[in-house]
Design goal:
The structure is a homodimer. Chain A has about 240 residues and is α+β, with helices and mostly antiparallel strands. Chain A has 5 helices and 9 strands, in the order E-E-E-E-H-E-E-E-H-H-H-E-E-H. Chain A is about 25% helix and about 25% strand. In chain A, strand 1 and strand 2 form a beta hairpin. Chain A binds a DNA duplex (30 and 30 nucleotides) through helix 4.
DNA sequence: GTACTTTTTGTAGAGGTTACAATTACCTAT
DNA sequence: ATAGGTAATTGTAACCTCTACAAAAAGTAC
């Protein structure tokens, strides 16, 4: 062990400054759910390169800005939402992924209720629009790949982590919860079995309230209790929808 | 939708060149398994900052090098192994994580058989040594956090992905497989139940050979069949150990 | 052959999942 | 008030899987 390697490309044969000529960006996959539809927020680029193409919202990371903060800032600029923290998924670092220079990008996602948001274009975007995840246009850069990976990551995360709490109102019915999962995961659950499993989860608290003004038997409302959820997991339980 | 936001910090009020004064690195968590022990390869830094401290092997990414290639190169430099591709886990990008400048690092891991490797120190390392994951010394930078996250990622990945195939010989017994999982996941499996579950997995092919020169009933040898594994999953199956 | 060790097979019971049916509660129209 | 429509809620039998534990088998060493 610890024998010196005979020959090794010398790192310092490249001027050290050359390593500080690259940049990093964040790209944000903002999913919006509403009424059994899953969409994603895309911008139409207002500047070169790829001017006019659809792309994921993103930005370079400021020199004195944390990576996570940069993602939150992009979300804030677009949606005015301050209290969301985006989830990091993966970094993309092919040499030629950005035509203007070496830019490594870190992909983030969030899942939100579509109706709560009025997204607004930033200075670098001509237009901004929700697109169904089933019909994604051609995207700039390697954003198609980034989107796909984030969609997969979100789908596997939602089974175990409560990233869906932002999507439903504070009080929701189990049917609403079921529809959300059916839409996101593209599969059907049996109504009876789903509610049996889910209503056994201690962190979903049954309320003394029901739906009103529905033309059928009203459903009991539930709420997600974050404190109970944390305890539930700390005592070794694994959540699986 | 698409209304212009009234006020926005202008990206271009910061000279664009300032964005190209940062660097990225990769850090590699190389796990080594042998004889019911899980270890990790650490280097002792030979240069400032943190000279003399233990750290994860890593390096700046070359200007014309893909991110994934950089991780593979670090592994190659240390171990001479060429055909491994490391798994990306997560990026770490706090502003002050590197004392000399803005450096974002991308963490990778691999899982190998410890005995097959004679690691050798690179130019930037005084020493290199396997450390039990149970006794990790103080580490430079934020490497403790990186190691923890990679260990968690490896533990959850190994249940579903065959990242363990490098660790066992081409032909292995089910007991060896069981010991590997018990060590990595720190839990016990029932012998009978483990082999029942595992021998039902179609991609683990039972061979017509047995152990030789053992002082007890010889075990049947198995091999991992990659082609069958791919088919198995393409037909919708999920693997879970 | 006998003792020893580990592999390999078997099994009963507990517990969970699945498909499907029956019942309940509220609204609306008559 | 009563009947009909709709979806929530509860129930259940068949089936499957997991668990703990035990018994049998197949080598080596003596």
């Amino acid at each position: 062990m610890a024998k010196k390697k005979p020959e090794k490309k010398d790192l310092y044969s490249i001027p050290i400054d050359d390593f500080f000529k690259s940049a990093f960006s964040v790209d944000c996959v903002i999913f919006g759910y509403h009424d059994k539809e899953l969409k994603v927020l895309l911008i139409q680029r207002g500047a070169s390169p790829f001017e006019g193409d659809w792309a994921l919202p993103g930005d370079l990371v400021y020199p004195h800005e944390d990576l996570d903060s940069a993602a939150d800032r992009v979300l804030m600029d677009l949606t005015q939402l301050e209290d969301i923290s985006m989830r990091q998924v993966k970094s993309f670092g092919k040499v030629k992924r950005h035509p203007l220079g070496r830019v490594i990008t870190v992909a983030y996602f969030a899942l939100l209720e579509l109706q709560e948001i009025s997204p607004m274009a930033s200075s670098w975007a001509k237009d901004i629009k929700w697109h169904s995840v089933k019909r994604i246009p051609k995207l700039a850069f390697d954003h198609k790949e980034i989107l796909t990976e984030c969609l997969n990551a979100m789908r596997s995360l939602i089974k175990h982590e409560p990233i869906w709490t932002r999507v439903l109102s504070k009080k929701f019915t189990l049917t609403e919860l079921q529809e959300l999962f059916e839409t996101v995961l593209m599969k059907k659950y049996d109504k009876g079995n789903f509610r049996k499993k889910v209503s056994a989860m201690k962190f979903l608290k049954r309320l003394q309230e029901s739906q009103v003004n529905v033309r059928h038997r009203p459903s009991t409302l539930y709420k997600f209790d974050h404190k109970t959820f944390v305890q539930y997991r700390e005592s070794g339980n694994v959540v699986e929808f």
